[in-house]
Request: fold
Amino acid sequence: MLQCNRLLTFSGLGHCFSYVAGLYYSHSTLSAANLGGSNALLPGRLIGGLGRLLDKPLGTILSLIPGWGPGSQSTTMHLNQTADDYSFYGQFEEFFLPHWAVIGSVRIGLEHKTGSASRMAQGALVSLISIAIFHRTSAASSAPFYPSSAYNGRLTSAECLFHLDARLQERRLQQPCR
Reply:
């Protein structure tokens, strides 16, 4: 897995206010492969227990038939995923009394993911129990929007009051699988 993140933040403080704003970027890539040999197809591997008793005789019988023996069966799987995330965020805090503030913030993002999966099976036995060649690609995008508001205040030297109202609004755009 490869992952890269970048964050750029700006902040400031005024007489009765403070703010923070920033940009965020993330890129990640995940790739995996699995090569499966024919021994995984023998009954002992599939059902365990009693099936293990059949492994040797069945393997011997299948090896006499060209293209059906355990040594001539294999499967290969590949999985790939890429994700790119971009966002802007900002928060503004206004002090309307010495110990009381109103806070507003927003985060706007764009997320895009693509993925593919493929499988290839070789051998007569494997082709009977699974699809010989399979490939699927899909992509999805969304644009989340996170507005929030809050207030914060000190009631006494030991007690504070804080209230947050946060919501998620998200648009998803799904592309058909190919």
